[in-house]
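Checklist before submission:
- one chain only
- standard amino acids only
- sequence pasted in full

Submission:
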Amino acid sequence: MLDNLTIPEDIEKEPELAIPSIDEQKRIVAELKRLEEAGELTPEILEEFMTGKRNLEQNG
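Returned file contents:
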């Protein structure tokens, strides 16, 4: 079905992120829940966590 789909050669690819360990994923979820409960979780912060622009060390 997708045999005729081609990706342009000049397309800019985003770097692949390493999948966090289960323990790190649990810590990230806990931090996101903490931010949400404190009323500090914004779409921008969520996006930063999901794209790897922010990690637990940066969040403090």
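Reviewer check: Residues 22-59 form one domain.
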